[in-house]
Amino acid sequence: MKLTKLYDxxxxxxxxxxxxxxxxxxxxxxxxxxxxxxxxxxxxxAEFFNGFxxxxxxxxxxxxxxxxxxxxxxxxxxxxxxxxxxxxxxxxGGIKEEVPVVIYLRGYSKKHPGGSFKQKEDTEVESTFSIxxxxxxxxxxxxxxxxxxxxxxxxxxxxxxxxxxxxxGI
Length: 170
What we know:
The protein has a single domain (3-32, 47-139), classed as Beta Barrel (Elongation Factor Tu (Ef-tu), domain 3), CATH 2.40.30. The strands form 2 sheets. Strands 1, 2, 3, 6, 7, 8, 9, 10, 11 and 12 form a 10-stranded antiparallel beta sheet that branches. The protein has a two-stranded antiparallel sheet with strand order 4-5. The longest helix is centred in the middle third of the chain and has 8 residues, at 66-73. The chain contains 2 helices and 12 strands. By secondary structure, it is mainly beta. Helix content is 9%, strand content 55%.
């Protein structure tokens, strides 16, 4: 039997580590938009791929430093985020190996939180991002890449929208 576990993560904002400042990261889901199709003579209807739904990510901070706050307060400039984790693979003899899991995100900050302050409790704030670029790598291998603004969608390195971009002349 082979088991895999992901533990812990580190966040980077515009290529700078913010180790120890993020409490939780929720990466976006890639969700297809499906369009119904039905016509005379069909005994039912079918759904077909018609693009992607919007993506959103959130980061709960223990309290980000001043530079991170300035970066996230600018709603007009995209932010590059990277989430790095380690996937441990176990077999009957224990940990077989650990490999990196990296998620790259690019998008715009949607709000600048003021925070909630309580006596003798840590202050946590949450940032929300509108994501237009998502890439997931496991052990250096690209699993999925979606660049909404440039009409790029790759799975396992295969560019699934190359022909569409060519047909559109982009």
